[in-house]
Specification:
This protein has helices spanning 7-18, 79-96, 120-125; strands spanning 41-44, 65-71, 109-115. The protein is an alpha+beta fold. The chain folds into 2 domains: 1-30, no CATH class; 32-125, no CATH class. The protein has a 3-stranded mixed sheet with strand order 1-2-3, with helices on one face. Strand 2, helix 2 and strand 3 (109-115) form a beta-alpha-beta unit.
Amino acid sequence: MSSPTDFHRLFGLAWLDFFDGTDVEVKTELDLSIQQQYIDLVIIRKGTMPIPRRLPDGFEPLAAHNLATFKSYQEAMNPWTLQELVGHYSDYRKIVSPSTDQLLPEADFRLFAVTARFPANLSKELNLVTGAAWRL
């Protein structure tokens, strides 16, 4: 039995060939784990028992996996912060799933962006609601 075709490698090789002889650099299968990345908070719900205390506004109901980023008074909540949170979600979902072919369902995850001050600049770009929660 022959091994499956490595289409990721072929995709990269096609771009290497395409840009051959130009001043464009192509990197294939680049390991992005060189710089450690940290998510501020992960809350893992291991069961279905009721939580015996009231959750903060916007955190209810918890999913099985809840990822949160936090910005203090010294830091701004901006579009980059939200893009970074989605990137952490993507990485985390791959890590906790049985395999990348069997990802846990999206409904098992919630993302939270918490800030100590109202993000005035971000509110000019997005329609924000204080204490609200959004699903992906």
